[in-house]
Amino acid sequence: MEKTIDQACRSLKDELGKDKEWRPNIIAFLCNWCSYAGADLAGTSRLKYNSNVRLIRVPCSGKVDPLFILRAFADGADGVLVSGCHPGDCHYSTGNYFARRKFALLKRLLEFCGLDERRIHFSWVSAAEGGKWSKVVNETVEAVHKAGPFKGLEPHEGSDKGDKDE
Amino acid sequence: MDTLISKKDLDRIIDSIVETCQVFAPVNQEGIKLFQEIQSKDQIIWADGNCHRSVKEIFFPITEPIFFYKKTRLGVKIDPIQNHNKKRVLIGIRPCDAFALYVMDQVFTWDYNDELYLALRKNTVIIGLSCVRPEPFCFCTATNISPFEERGSDILLTDLGNGMYHSRIITEKGTAFTERFKKYFKEITPEQELKKEALANTVISKMPAPFPIADIKSWLDRNFGHPIWEELGLGCIGCGTCTYLCPTCHCFDLTDENRGYSGQRRRNWDSCAFDHFTKMAAHQPRTFQWQRFRQRVMHKFKYYMDKFSHLACVGCGRCRALCPVGKDIYQVIRAIQKETNCQNQNLKGAKKGK
Amino acid sequence: MRARIKVIRMNEIKAKLKALLKNAELDLVIGYGERKIPTSDGSEITGICPLFVTRESGIDGLVWNRHCVHNLVTYLTKKEYKDYKKIAIFVKPCDLKAIYVLCQENQIDRQRLLIIGLACNGMIREKMGISTKELAGKCITCRESSEGAVARCQKEHTDLMIESTPEGSIPSSSEKKALTLEDLEKMSGADRWAFWQKQFQKCLRCYACRAVCPLCYCEQCVCDMSQPQWIEKSPHLKGNFLFHLVRAFHLTGRCIGCGECERVCPMGLPLTLLNQKMIKEVKDLYDYESGKDPEQAPVLSQFRVDDDESFIK
Amino acid sequence: MNHIYQPSLMRIESIKEEAPDVKTFRLVFLDPVLRQTFHFQAGQFGEFSVFGEGEATFCIASSPTWQGFIECSVKMAGKVTQALHRMDVGEVLGFRGPYGNHFPMKQMENKDLIFVAGGIGIAPLRSLIWNCLGSRDRFGKITILYGARSVADLVYKDELDTWEKRHDIHFTKTVDPGGETEDWNGRIGFVPLVMRDLELDPRNAYAIVCGPPIMIKFTIQGLDAMGFKPDKIITTLEMKMKCGLGKCGRCNIGHIYVCKDGPVFTFADIQALPAEF
Lengths: 166, 354, 313, 277
Known about the structure:
The complex is a heterotetramer of chains A (166), B (354), C (313) and D (277). Chain A is of the alpha/beta class and 166 residues long. Chain A is built from five helices and four strands, in the order H-E-H-E-H-E-H-E-H. In chain D, the strands form three sheets. In chain D, strands 10-9-8-7-11-12-15 form a seven-stranded mixed β-sheet, with helices on both faces. In chain D, strands 4-3-6-1-2-5 form a six-stranded antiparallel β-sheet. A two-stranded antiparallel sheet of chain D has the order 13-14. By secondary structure, chain D is an alpha/beta fold. The model of chain D has no long low-confidence stretch (mean pLDDT 93). Chain D folds into two domains: 8-99, Translation factors (Elongation Factor Tu (Ef-tu), domain 3); 105-236, Rossmann fold. Chains in contact: A-B, A-C, B-C, B-D, C-D. At the B-D interface, strand 4, strand 5, helix 4, strand 10 and strand 11 of B face strand 6 and strand 13 of D.
């Protein structure tokens, strides 16, 4: 999974890197049963929404480990969106309830460390809410755009001369 | 060739070299004394006591990239790191840390020269500062060196207390440095010389007695399986504090960090206290923590002696002070010394009995 | 063996332990022992360190004084001590809570333990191995939290109890903790980010915080895994940030604030701030306190339908 | 700045599937000068880098007499080996070496040689066997006993056949009980047991043993019982390695560094070591 996240950040950065002006680079973790279907519906009904998002499908929002989110930020994402089924609709009946507690605590831990709260978003999007999905994505990109590029985790000068990207 | 230099002149020298090259000295960083690069002379803390972390990190950094690579369709392109050729001066290093570098040079020049370490060593002038008031946990005299040890430093300063420093040149680098600042180094009068010798003797006389290194080594040669090791190592929790603060611990790990199609190989410190230090797919030779504790003591007081005829312990006392559970290598060696004594008695007894 | 002998003195405890050791009802006693540390000028200072006693003769070495700052519960989950059948362990109130969490997580069998509670009102701080006059960092935070609850839970769940607090005056907590949770929360996000970046850059990855933590008992830590390699092994900012945040999150709802991680950090990182924050959040969000009761379900393995979801779009 | 931890680049020329989890890689130096000047001796090893995954220690399985390339046989086990098994012909990987000591060819001259190998342990011996066959007359009687868990696990199958056909080699192959197939013509049984049936003459002979630690232990016991002197039994030891040249401090057994003083040891050396491996 950690290679998928790295590849997602990579491919998005390459594609966004082409135009001069910076655009946010967002990684979204979508639960396979509701949110992914919702995003699919948004696509089939030709809804326009911001394109600098890379989706990673997970079986359930409960499967989204805080490590995925931390790894996404470490690999260069500017923002992370996690979306799952509405409480009660979960295909595995309780996955999103456990996820809700994890996300609540993770959000506060990251804010305590100083990560801008506009960079991390959670949402419930059901399979029928194509419209809500495009709204959620646009809001997220808007918020991350205000937060600016995430320069947080470049290794500092002392220990090494910076990550030598392409 | 000994000379005398006043504190003011020393400050003038530091001011002039700060522009031309990197100068490292003990600096207070949020209550912890560390060797850091300084911009001006007032940052330096001349007071007694060693730095929290040893000076080895200036030559053998905690983590450093050793090369960068890029994977392309045609293959892999390696681009090396820049040369370590910046001129550097290290001031205020304690004799035990300086001697530790001298000890570590042996392993980094054993058959293969570790250019990463040696280049930094070559370009650095080391101005040692002998210890007039050792710290409570120091035991350098026990490992056959002294608070006035000269090996390892290029120039050794000794604070004579009256604002003057006795300065002794030890290596060519030291002569070159003194030559460059000839006007600051004054002629030394014989009674200043005597004052320094007297100071040295008083300090050393109060320090712990030397370990019987030969006896200890011969005991260690024969007692790898001795039950005392399990007792001595009981309680060690396997953190890396003692090895990372130790001036002579040189074990490292090479790992790759990949980002897409490019990345770097890094060299990081590693510790024999960790479980994955020797863990292999097939088996793990050191399963219990006391076996790793034994490895550290054996390596410093036997294996290094076997290979390089030097103790790999300079008695700086950092591991004694900062072990979270109070493990103490000095008391371990004294315990082994007691073992050697009673073993000698048995031998003597056996002789008499024959 | 569940004799509930409550209020007795240290020497009575020693006599009891000797008896138990003699007729093999006890295999190991983990307590605090004194050791004479020879210093460079020939004098000796007394230092306290964990003491492991398997024979009667060793029992006299046990002490209880102002320097018994270590949390001995960390040894209960280590490989070397797992095959002792019956263990007696000395615990202060802050250490005792770690045993509850371990029981909650089925890591240790309560029947195997003879818990000897120690009434504690503050330990002395050690700086570079030398005792200072001030209160230990973790005791400052402990004193602020409800002292009553600590004493109450100690009475119920220990087998033996030493009621007398250690001799010597209670060290003054003159030196207020350099930085408290409230100071950090008042800071702006950007300042907090800069603060934590500076702290994480100092970390050496010596893993002393993980080795000493009673609740960090994983056979192979996620930070040591290479397949998949989630966290870089190198102690640069990115690797340290991931290591400390993953550890803080893995302790969320479990950490009992024993403060050992901050005590042992050779670089003086304020690690308990991360854990204190999460203790506060867990209390505030789910009204849950870790280490209060060995039978309650851990906070992240249960949920309520009306949990807060105001932050979810 | 070039330094001793910087690998030289090699291209994979061919990959041979030896067993379900073992592949043999034939590698050629990219640098033409190195292609000529590189030489090594049987028993030495190298550090092979898969960029992005790390480095791993493998013995050089090709014979020093073969020019222009080296071969290494890799069993899939951890991170680097799995990455290696995913690579295909033409890709580039790094190599540092040769490191460590080598089999004592001089002392083995005009002596009988007995090779006992188990599983992937045959890789270092294969290098030595082909090296000896290169100048066959310098040595006495050559006996090869090779065993593996099952027929599919046998490595270098075609070379085993050529050795079997040669009349100047006493070749025996075996598989562990239960690992045989219908048309299996070799022996069935564990290597140390099958070894007892071969009449091995300890006088004027060297036994070279390589394989999993459990097999080495019992084989050496068998050889001991047959009267082989400890200094006439040669084996290789395996410890975790990172630098491969004595600096990173992790491959020591007692004061011996397996990467510098080994990996080839006589049983007499091993008896002098503390029982730590």
